[in-house]
Amino acid sequence: MDVILKSRSLGSFRLTPVKESDVVMSEKEFYEKIDRSILQAKEGKVIRQKDGETTEDFVNRMLCTE
Length: 66
What we know:
By secondary structure, this protein is α+β, with helices and mostly antiparallel strands. The chain has 2 helices and 2 strands.
């Protein structure tokens, strides 16, 4: 169930329940994850889409690689 908050000066806000599948992390965790990803890219630990490869095939290949 959503909850609506109304403020005269700031407008309206909707609160929605967090689901198990939602990812919730701190700002610190977020930036640590970004830093790890940048390091992986610098080390060449990336999966690139091949010339002529469809997006669907690329995504399927990525999912099978992990």
